[in-house]
TrEMBL record:
Role summary: Cell division inhibitor that blocks the formation of polar Z ring septums. Rapidly oscillates between the poles of the cell to destabilize FtsZ filaments that have formed before they mature into polar Z rings. Prevents FtsZ polymerization.
Annotated family: Belongs to the MinC family.
Keyword Cell division: yes
Originating species: Klebsiella michiganensis
Name of this protein: Septum site-determining protein MinC
Any one GO BP annotation for this protein: cell morphogenesis
Residue ranges of domain Septum formation inhibitor MinC C-terminal in the record: 1-94
Pfam families, per the entry: MinC_C (PF03775)
Record's keyword terms, sorted: Cell cycle, Cell division, Septation
Length: 98
C-alpha cells in the first residue's frame, strides 16, 4: 500500500493484487490481473484511447486521460467484477468482461 508505479510511454500490466493506497499510472492502458483496490490512472499523458482492464474492480479511483470516477461512482453491478473502462465522448464508460 502507498506504492506508486508509473509506466511512461507504454502500457502497465500487473499480475497480482493492488492494495488500497497504491497508485498505478500509465501513459497507455492498465491491465490488472488480480484485485484492484488502489488507484488506476491510464492515459496519463493525455491518450484518450487508453483503457483500464481489471479482473476484480474494487478501486478507490479510476481515471482515463484526466476523466475520473471515485469508488462511489463505480456502478454497483461492476464492483468486485471483471470490467473494462474506456472513454466514450469524454465520459467514462464501463463494460463487464464476464
Amino acid at each position: 500500500s502507498g506504492q506508486r508505479i508509473y509506466a511512461p510511454h507504454c502500457d502497465l500490466i500487473v499480475t497480482n493484487h493492488v492494495s488500497a493506497g497504491a497508485e498505478l499510472i500509465a501513459d497507455g492502458n492498465i491491465h490488472v490481473y488480480g484485485m484492484m483496490r488502489g488507484r488506476a490512472l491510464a492515459g496519463a499523458g493525455g491518450d484518450r484511447d487508453a483503457q483500464i482492464f481489471c479482473s476484480n474492480l474494487s478501486a478507490e479511483l479510476v481515471s482515463i486521460a484526466g476523466e475520473y470516477w471515485l469508488s462511489d461512482n463505480i456502478p454497483a453491478e461492476f464492483y468486485g467484477k471483471a470490467a473494462r473502462l474506456r472513454l466514450d465522448d469524454s465520459a467514462l464508460t464501463i463494460q463487464s468482461l464476464n
